């Protein structure tokens, strides 16, 4: 009776396993990843906000990427942790709608911000004398507004078309969150074609974004290779290679996830792919961007030293 009620009023997320021990292990692993992701991205947001040396457009966009990453991982992971700990995969219809909206909005916003960041690197390296004019603060602000606005439009399109279909099958989702391809499998008519149309349109736009980023990096690398000093080439590559890796990794896993056929019994490979594009990018981005960036590492050391100095002053004042 409970199962019938759940499948009538909401959806059942099957998650990763029915074995209780594996559910607890999954919850603990996701919790550790979630806390580390929050710590890493919160540090980047803090130092790019407080440190006056990190007020260039590159770090302004990096700060918004970290905000997106924190939001992105918070859409799916806490719900999955709760479902595993309580051994209850139920998610209400309204919760599923919100999850689809925020997930699709943030996926597109990530693609958009990574495209903007590639253009920023192109302008900085290929047109250094005109960089401040090309990427002045007002243009950067409007670019970020466009990123968030385009993400919201994408989310609205996906959500309205997805939940306009008639779900006539058992509302069982073979995933750890409300995945759009899995939801489409619950339809018994052709009304899912509207979602396919939206997905096709957004895929074309994403391909255009990726192509423009690739062309930007072709110009960047050709310019960098003409830099006479090895130090200059190393500095340019250190700011470009992490971004290129992040963009390629994020888009390739999303494309692989949406192109592969959905299965009633997902394999380990299917689940790993879903983790790669939902959990790993937000967790890895702070590491990738900070390890090869001396300015961020220096700002972090300064933040730690300032914090230690403040604590010492407080301790001495109490003494």
How do the strands line up in the largest sheet? 2-1-3
Q: How many beta-strand elements?
A: 3
Q: What name is given to the CATH topology?
A: Rhopdopsin 7-helix transmembrane proteins
Q: Helix fraction?
A: over 70%
Biggest sheet architecture: 3 strands, mixed
Question: Strand fraction band?
Answer: under 5%
Domain G-protein coupled receptors family 1 profile: 40-289
Protein name: Olfactory receptor
Transmembrane segments: 24-47, 97-119, 140-158, 192-218, 239-259, 271-291
Main location: membrane
Explain how this protein is built:
Residues 1-7 and 313-317 have low confidence and may be disordered. The chain has twelve helices and three strands; from the N terminus they run αβααβαααβαααααα. It is 78% helix and 3% strand. The chain has one domain: Rhodopsin 7-helix transmembrane proteins (Rhopdopsin 7-helix transmembrane proteins, Up-down Bundle), CATH 1.20.1070. The protein has helices spanning 2-9, 20-50, 57-86, 93-126, 131-134, 137-162, 180-184, 193-224, 230-259, 268-278, 280-291, 294-318; strands at 10-13, 90-92, 172-173. It has a three-stranded mixed beta sheet. The relative contact order is 0.13. It is globular, with a radius of gyration of 22 Å. It has 319 residues and is an all-alpha fold. Helix 6 (137-162) runs antiparallel to helix 8, helix 8 (193-224) runs antiparallel to helix 9 (230-259) and helix 9 packs antiparallel against helix 11 (280-291). The protein starts with a helix and ends with a helix. It is found in: Cell membrane. Residues 40-289 form the G-protein coupled receptors family 1 profile domain. GO terms for molecular function: G protein-coupled receptor activity; olfactory receptor activity. Belongs to the G-protein coupled receptor 1 family. It is a multi-pass membrane protein.
């Amino acid at each position: 009776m409970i199962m019938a009620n759940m499948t009538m009023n909401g959806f059942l997320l099957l998650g990763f396993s029915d074995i209780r021990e594996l559910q607890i292990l999954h919850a603990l692993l996701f919790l550790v990843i979630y806390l580390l992701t929050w710590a890493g991205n919160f540090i980047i947001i803090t130092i790019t906000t407080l440190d006056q040396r990190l007020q260039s457009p590159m770090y302004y966009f990096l700060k918004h990427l970290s905000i997106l990453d924190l939001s992105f991982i918070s859409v799916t992971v806490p719900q999955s942790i709760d479902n595993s700990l309580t051994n209850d995969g139920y998610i209400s219809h309204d919760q599923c709608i919100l999850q689809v909206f925020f997930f699709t909005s943030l996926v597109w916003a990530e693609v958009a911000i990574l495209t903007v960041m590639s253009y920023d690197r192109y302008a900085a390296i290929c047109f250094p004398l005109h960089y401040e004019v090309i990427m002045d603060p007002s243009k950067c602000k409007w670019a970020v507004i466009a990123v968030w606005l385009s993400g919201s439009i994408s989310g609205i399109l996906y959500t309205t078309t997805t939940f306009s279909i008639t779900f006539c099958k058992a509302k069982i989702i073979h995933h750890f969150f409300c995945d759009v391809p899995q939801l489409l499998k619950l339809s018994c008519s052709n009304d899912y074609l509207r979602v396919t149309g939206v997905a096709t349109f957004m895929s074309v736009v994403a391909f255009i974004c990726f192509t423009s980023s690739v062309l930007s990096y072709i110009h960047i690398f050709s310019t960098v290779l003409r830099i006479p000093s090895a130090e200059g080439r190393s500095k340019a590559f250190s700011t470009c290679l992490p971004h290129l890796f992040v963009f390629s990794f994020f888009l390739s896993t999303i494309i692989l996830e949406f192109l592969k056929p959905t299965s009633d019994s997902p394999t380990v490979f299917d689940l790993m792919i879903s983790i790669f594009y939902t959990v790993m990018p937000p967790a890895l981005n702070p590491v990738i961007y900070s390890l090869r960036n001396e300015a961020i590492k220096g700002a972090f050391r300064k933040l730690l030293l300032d914090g230690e100095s403040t604590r010492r002053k407080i301790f001495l004042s109490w003494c």
